[in-house]
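Folding problem:
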Amino acid sequence: MNRVMLIGRLTAKPELRYTGSNLPFARFSVAVNRTFNNAQGERQTDFINVIVWRKQAENVCNFLNKGSLVSVEGRLQTGSYDDKDGNKRYTMDVVADSVQFLESKAQSQSRIQNQDVTPYDYQEAPTVDVDSDPFADFGDSVSIDENFLD
């Protein structure tokens, strides 16, 4: 059985893209806290790559922003590609069957307002105490080589 369930926050606003046959998809990363502390007493976070397809991809891109709390259910998919230097790179993604929005629009807007940023402007994120909100500022999204998608 290949089943994955995650709850976490988006690290960047997802972008809608299309395959050569005009099929919509989106890639995003979810930050998920581990349930235990390390030897230094700090809680660590895993960053899980997610792919979502069709109408759900459109919904994710239309309604979610950086920091949005989501539940993702799907399957684990591995892959590989050769980078520009000819080195083999391995990938692991969750292909989402379901993405549930776990906070209301009002909660999301309130969270954004408390951070003094607008929903679509995350270049200048405020300084936030990591203990109170570890997902506040992950920086820019990661670019993916187009050849990987084929």
